[in-house]
Amino acid sequence: MAKLVSNVYGDALFELAVESGRVDDFLKEAEGVIEVVKKDDGFSQMMNHPKINKEEKLQIIDEIFKGRVSDEIVGLLRMLEEKDHIKEIEGVLNYYIEKVYDYKKIGRATVSTPLELTDAQKADVEKRLLQTTEYSSFIMNYIVDPELIGGMVIRIKDRVVDSSIKTQINKLSHELSNIQLKVGECAP
């Protein structure tokens, strides 16, 4: 249900943004609203509190966001509250952000390595990703994970390229255990 809500409202916001030529404006505002929602636990608590009625919640939305983001984004937030979907605010806005990135051919990649990469290595990774994907640019996120031992793991959306030594060792170990089982099965 949550995914359906995110898709319906996120698609509607995206269509409005494209029609009005405000894709980038709404993108910045969506990112800002998500930041407020994540940082301010009080907002989520108020919006989900059973003793605060719907009108008061709509007033809270107006007080926090009106004049800071466009009327369209405020309207979306109000609609989510009116339809009892305010809990899905992050999902809706994240879905919109993903739609914008796809529309603009911007990829988001997370690269995990056992050691910090140099700037030249980072540039090489990004260059290779641009050559092997349909994206025209990337937002890169680098993570140091010493457990990988060597190699790297690259995540783009739901795709994962894992060339880490840790994974190769795990695969080899699994293959060896299968060989040992087969040898044991053949014994008289």
UniProtKB/TrEMBL annotation:
Domain of life: Bacteria
An MF annotation (GO) of this entry: proton-transporting ATP synthase activity, rotational mechanism
Subcellular location as annotated: Cell membrane; Membrane
GO cellular component: plasma membrane; proton-transporting ATP synthase complex
Keywords, alphabetical: ATP synthesis, Cell membrane, CF(1), Hydrogen ion transport, Ion transport, Membrane, Transport
PANTHER family reported in the protein's UniProt record: ATP SYNTHASE DELTA CHAIN
HAMAP family assigned to the protein according to its UniProt record, in alphabetical order: ATP_synth_delta_bact
Family membership: Belongs to the ATPase delta chain family.
Record protein name field: ATP synthase subunit delta
Protein species of origin: Pseudobutyrivibrio ruminis
Gene: atpH
